[in-house]
Amino acid sequence: MLKQETLTVSALNRKAKQLLEIHFPKLLVTGEISNLARPSSGHWYFSLKDTQAQIRCAMFRSKASGVTHPIKEGDQVLIQGSLSLYEPRGDYQFIVERMTLAGEGALQAAFEALKAKLRSEGLFESHLKRPIPEHPQRVGMITSATGAAIQDVLTVLKRRAPHIEITVYPALVQGKEAPQDLIHALNLAYEHAWADVLIIGRGGGSLEDLWAFNDEALARKMFDSPIPIISAVGHETDFTIADFVADLRAATPSAAAELVALDRDQLLKVLGGFEEWLQQYMQRLISNYRQNLLHLQKRLKHPKHQLREYAQRLDRLEIAMVRGQRRKLSDCQNRLQAPLSDLLRMNPRLWLQSSNEQLNLYQTRLNTAIQRIMERNQQALQHQVGMLNALSPLNTLNRGFGIMLNQQIKPITSHTDVKQGERLYAQLKHGHLTCEVIDADSTSKLPIVDTADTVSA
User: Fold this and answer.
1) Residue 241 and residue 118 in contact, taking contact as beta carbons nearer than 8 Å
2) What one-character DSSP code corresponds to residue 146?
C-alpha cells in the first residue's frame, strides 16, 4: 500500500495558490463591483459579480493609482489580472492589474472571448492558412462600393500593377446588417470562383465601427474560403477577428493592394516580411519561455509576496477593527438610551411642570368646590333669613301691634307682670308710648290704657 503524503493546511493552500497562478496567468473578466473597501493603505478590495456568481478581488495601491475613472458600487467594469489564493484565510481571489469601465471595455471583453474560442478551435493556426499567390492576375475586393478603401486599392493597383483585374463585391461594412451582408458578398465570390485572391476590409474607425469584422459567423465563413483572403480592416493599430482568421493581414486597404501587386523592388520587402514573421515567432517563443520561467519563479516564496500578504492581512484587520468599533459604539448608545430616558423622566423641570399642572387642577377643583359651598350656604342663609323675618317682632309691629316693656325694658307677656299704676313703655312701628296701668284684669278683652305721654322715636 502506497504511503499518502500528509499536508499541513499551509502547504495545501500554498499548492493550491501555485496551481491557480500557473494555469491562470492572465485573464480578462467583466462584472459588477460590490462590497468595495478602500482602507488607508491605498489597496482596493471588492467583489466582482454577475447574476449567478461572484469572486473576491484585490487591487494593490500601485495598480489602483493608475485607474483614471472614479469607481463606485454597482459599476460594470472590465478587469485584467490573474487568479491567486490568500493563503492565511484560504480565500480564492483575483489579483487585479488593470480596470476599465464597461462599454468599450465590454466590447473588448467580447472580442477577447471570441478570439480565445476560435483560437482553441484552431481557426488561427498558421499551418492552415492558404498561401497568397506571388503574382495574382485577378483580385476580388469585398468592401463598401462608395467607401475610401476601394479608391485606395484601385489607386495602388493602377500605379503598381495596372495589368491586374479587379472585381468589387459590394457590401455594408458597418452596422447590425453588415456581417450578413459581408457573408453574402463572400458567398458570391466563392460561387464566382474568379479571383486568385480576395481582399476584405474597410477604412479606419472606432471599435464599434469595426465591430462587423468581429462576427463569429463571418469568421467561420472566411475560414472555409476556397480562395486565399487578405484582411485589411482599419489602420495599422486596429485588430479584428477577421485579421486573425484571414490568410494574411494587411495594416490598411492600401497595404493589402501593395501585397498583391509586388514588383521587383518589393521582393526585398517580402524577405523583410519573412524576417518580421520570424522575429514575431521568436518573440512568441521567448515570451512563452519567459512565462514558464515566471511560473517557476512564483513557486518560490518571495519576500515581496509575503509582504503583500501581510499587507492584506493588516488591511482586513483594520476593516474588522473599524466595523467592531462601530458595533461597540452602537451597543454603548443602545445601553445608554434607557438610563437617559429615565433621567429625562426624572428631570426636575418636568416634575415641576407636572406638579404645576396637578396644582392648577386641584386649584380649579377647590375653586369649584368653594363656589358650590358658598352657593349652598347662601341659599341656606337666605332660607334662615326668610324664616327669621317671618318670626321677627318687627313684622308684628308692621301689622299694627306693639310690644309692652316695663321700666327694666323687659317684655311683658302677662297681666301678672305689672301692677296698677305702674308706668310701662309700648314699642310701636314708629316710636313708643309711655303708659300707666289703670287696671290689670285677665278677663278683660280690651284693656283700657291711659296714654300719659308720647315720645317720638
Assistant:
1) yes
2) T
Q: Partners of 49 in the beta sheet?
A: 32, 54
CA pseudo-torsion sign 238, 244, 250, 253: negative
Q: How far apart are CA 321 and CA 306, in angstroms?
A: 22
Q: ∠ CA(64), CA(65), CA(69), 5° rounding?
A: 80
Pairwise pLDDT comparison (274 vs 116), residue with the higher score: 116
The position carrying cell 363656589 is 371
How far apart (Å, rounded) are the C-alpha atoms in residues 56 and 35? 9
Half-sphere exposure of 312 (CA within 13 A, CB side): 22
- pLDDT score for 1: 47
300's enclosing H/E stretch is none
Q: Report the C-alpha gap between 435 and 438 in whole angstroms.
A: 9
Biggest distance spanned by C-alpha atoms of the chain: 193
In sequence order, the 6+-apart residues with CB closer than 8 A to the CB of 210 are 202, 233, 234, 238, 240
pTM above 0.90, yes or no: no
CA–CA separation, 177 and 230 (whole Å): 22
- Residue closest to 417 by CA, chosen among 451, 392, 442: 442
Strands 76-86 and 54-59: unpaired
Q: Residue 64, SS3?
A: helix
| Distance separating alpha carbons of residues 202 and 210, to the nearest angstrom | 8
Give the span between the Cα atoms of 294 and 25, in whole angstroms: 10
**Residue range 339-396, pLDDT digits in tens:** 777 776 677 777 788 788 888 888 898 999 999 999 899 998 888 888 887 777 777 7
Which grid coordinates are listed for 97?
492589474
Q: Cell triple for residue 184?
A: 453574402
pLDDT of residue 294 exceeding 70: yes
pLDDT at 440 over 80: no
What's the rounded Cα separation, in Å, for the pair 112 and 29? 10
Within 8 A by CB and 6+ apart from 345, the residues are none
- Which cell is 70 given? 472614479
Q: Where are the alpha helices (DSSP H) in 177-302?
A: 178-192, 216-223, 241-245, 253-260, 264-298
